Amino acid sequence: MSSTKPKQSRKGNREKLMNAALDLLAEDQSGLSGISLRRITKACSLSPPAFYSHFTSMEELGLALVSEAGGALLGILKDVGKVETEAAVINTSVEAVFSYIKGNESLFILIARERAGSSALIRAAIRSEVRQIVEQMALDFEGRGMFGRFSLPEKEAAIAAVVSLGLALIPDFLDVSNTSKVDGDALLSQFEYQVQIILS
């Protein structure tokens, strides 16, 4: 009786490709443009044609990674939204988001680089994810009566400023926290204070 080795699932191979890209991005400082399809497939022991079973291009791979980051952050912030007080929401949000960023460093190095990268599609995707986060947080706060001194449009404007500030902080936070946890925590404390001022 002949036996055949089970094929790797499409989902499994897709995740392998995404993880391999992130590993290579951690090594290469030039972003997506600095790594090739062949390097990615070689890193996860797949053939180049296997790449096209999941992505039509490197740009589409980048879009998938951006979507993963945005979805994860949105989920984290929805959970944080259950906290009862405004001060606790700010503190818990900052800690939860930057803990996730620290644990997924390569993914957020990609986000930080590609915000000003060469791909208009990826830049637009990052803006779209940011917009979803801003709108969802504003609606959550509005529904719970939090930060009631702001109208809904004012909440969106304030949260957009916070998110923009947080995105700009990512490279420095990762650099500093890799060298010194104390200095990384100090950066987050300063950021939390800035958020309090914006939302006061």
From TrEMBL:
Entry keywords, A to Z: DNA-binding
Family matches, as InterPro entries: DNA-bd_HTH_TetR-type_CS (IPR023772), Homeodomain-like_sf (IPR009057), HTH_TetR (IPR001647), HTH_transcr_repressor_FabR (IPR050692)
DNA-binding region: 36-55
Signal peptide positions on this chain: none
Keyword Cell division: no
Pfam family of the protein (one): TetR_N
Residue ranges of domain HTH tetR-type in the record: 11-73
Gene Ontology MF terms in the entry: DNA binding
PANTHER family linked to this entry: HTH-TYPE TRANSCRIPTIONAL REPRESSOR FABR
Listed name of the protein: HTH-type transcriptional repressor FabR
Gene: fabR_2
